[in-house]
Specification:
alpha+beta; about 25% strand; four-stranded mixed β-sheet
């Protein structure tokens, strides 16, 4: 059990976590402290005994859209699919084995550049480069 003095524990193999409380919408952080993305959904696999186990965290609009449901969820997914160069895009996927600690954020054992090949940051980088950067004042520090 955690106390305010010690803070949340590191990830413990076999420990049961409340996924909605401990993982969803948490910031993903690499070992250098750089922010990567948010946990938008979770991938579960069925064990031999029939119980579900967390196998990966999913990120990006492709993972968030189905969670939003309704028109907004469909719209987010449709826009994301149209802006992706892949024929059948999939959300960014980080195996749970890469998670080393869960506290106010989800800390990873792998660096940001190692995750580029699994679809992390692609959509966010595109939006930052082609949408946000073109907004008036986007390149200036606030006064």
């Amino acid at each position: 059990m955690t106390t305010p003095a010690t803070g949340p524990p590191d990830v413990v193999a076999g420990r049961q976590y409340d996924a909605a409380l401990h993982l969803l919408d948490r910031q993903l952080v690499d070992p250098d402290g750089r922010l990567l993305a948010k946990v938008d959904d979770l991938e579960l696999t069925e064990r031999a005994d029939g119980r579900l186990a967390l196998s990966a965290v999913l990120t990006g609009p492709g993972a968030l859209g189905p969670r939003l449901r309704g028109r907004l969820g469909h719209w987010v997914q449709a826009v994301w699919r149209r802006l992706r160069p892949d024929v059948d895009p999939v959300p960014g996927r980080i195996p749970i084995s890469d998670v080393v600690r869960i506290d106010s954020a989800v800390h990873l054992a792998v660096r940001r550049d190692a995750l580029d090949s699994v679809g992390i940051d692609g959509f966010e980088d595109w939006v930052r480069r082609y949408v946000v950067a073109r907004l008036p004042g986007a390149g200036h520090d606030p006064e």
